[in-house]
Amino acid sequence: MVIGLLEILIAFLFFLVFQGFLHHKKTRRHLATNWPVLGMLPGLLVNLPRIYDCITEVLEAAGMTYHFKGPWLSRTDILLTADPANIQYVLSSNFVNYHKGLEFQEIFEFLGDGIFNVDSELWEDMRNSSHAMFSHQEFQKFSVSTTLSKLKQGLVPILESAVEENIIVDLQDLFQRFLFDTTSILMTGYDPKCLSIERPKVEFGEAVDGVADGSFYRHAKPVFLWKLQNWLGVGVEKKMTRGIVVFDQFLEKIISARREELKSHRTHHDSVGEAMDVLTYYMTVDTTKYKHLKPSNDKFLRDVILNFLIAGRDTVSSALTWFFWLLSKNPEAMTKIRQEINNKMPKFDPTDLDKLVYLRGAVCESLRLYPPVPFNHKSPTKPDVLPSGHRVDEDMKIVISTYAVGRMRSVWGDDAEDFRPERWISDSGKSKEESSYKFLAFNAGPRSCLGKKLTFLQMKTVAVEIIRNYDIKVIEGHKIQPVPSVLLRMQHGLKVTVTKI
Ligand code: HEM
């Protein structure tokens, strides 16, 4: 009887809240309205299809920092910010106080103890060891040769067949396959060969989408709720569990095969000449130098490699997809890039890529407007006050909206929403840098991205090949919508037709 009355009371409360809610006029206000019991959750749910823009509008109106209140007692309060002063403070000046923290590690449990998920000494060892690996000349040569051969032997034949057969292709899908193959070769020495005319089902890709979406929802759901859903195996939590199984199976096979090879001294290193993949590097890493790394532990290797696979596959493919969509909407920029390529790089030579100043501007502009990692999550270890005056404590999540930072008029000027590669070119025609606290796509401070150089190499190489040879047209009426997730991908892909120039 008591439970029955309680249910009626709760139902009535929900009814009142939603009645009031439905009569609220401005979308921006919906997110900002703090309802009894439910906090700002209803606004978040209603605005999910346009969550990135909605957060941008709220932050612009609120002076770039906003306290999002979750349902009562749910511990889902979030301090949202897009203020470069706060960002510099959290990511750099007071870095020691802002960890990933235990909550982050729970939300992103699939990453295990990989570089994205750990703090302190383990992170330092991972950071220093992977920095040494990525900046090694041999690894850089290996990156160029792998990217070029996948481009010529994988991507180009598919584009050619799309031209010949006059069929629609999904560029997002092609870029994901391209980046999965290349990243897997660089990280593990194994080529999954999913970039082929047959386009086989890619379980790994589906698994990444599932865990990325699940992690997004875990930020806003009360912990007990997502844990219950996970235990019951329902909804997006089912995909979280499934994703972990797929990652484990994929990497287990690769790791054990490589161990066998190393045992019999037939290392990948020997078989591809000077090339050296990241897995081999970590299996033989110097533990006197990096005391917290465990090369003989398969779980350790699984975590390291999985983090790098996701870092390389899903970011660059997302960046390329948004880049080509933006160019399809800005044909004059496309023409300028084509002219620049024809004038400055009549024959492809990776050492000439730096000459393509306008192309670099277009890539930066696309990463500013559509950063593949749209949010960054931090937890304070001690209470603190941010430069904007907002107080934070240990129970709070700080979420930096990288998507919003790139669109703040107070940061980028009144044309912040426009795609303008010229923004990145100085008066003397040279490439212009911007502060990493406002151009945040690659993160900033001690945890800034280690793959930035590789990203520009891959994006510019693919862009040159495609723009020089093909005309890409997005099919009429194709709906472009970003998925609410921790990785920015298009809900319906990017369907295009391809013609030869
Ligand atoms: C468009 C391409 C890319 C973007 C937008 C991007 C963005 C980011 C961001 C936002 C972070 C910070 C993540 C966090 O702290 O939670 C990060 C870190 C990192 N990125 Fe990238 N990334 C890209 C490509 C790559 C590539 C190709 C690699 C190499 C395979 C890579 C390797 C890393 C690593 C190792 C870190 C961890 C740094 C640390 O925690 O110390 N990234 N990246």
TrEMBL record:
Top-level lineage group: Eukaryota
Membrane is among the record's keywords: yes
PROSITE patterns xref list: CYTOCHROME_P450
Residues holding heme: 449
Chain segments annotated as transmembrane: 6-22
Keywords: Heme, Iron, Membrane, Metal-binding, Monooxygenase, Oxidoreductase, Transmembrane, Transmembrane helix
Cofactor(s) required for function per UniProt: heme
Molecular function, one GO term: iron ion binding
GO biological process: lipid metabolic process
Family matches, as InterPro entries: Cyt_P450, Cyt_P450_CS, Cyt_P450_E_grp-I, Cyt_P450_sf
Family designation: Belongs to the cytochrome P450 family.
Name of this protein: Cytochrome p450
Lineage: Eukaryota, Viridiplantae, Streptophyta, Embryophyta, Tracheophyta
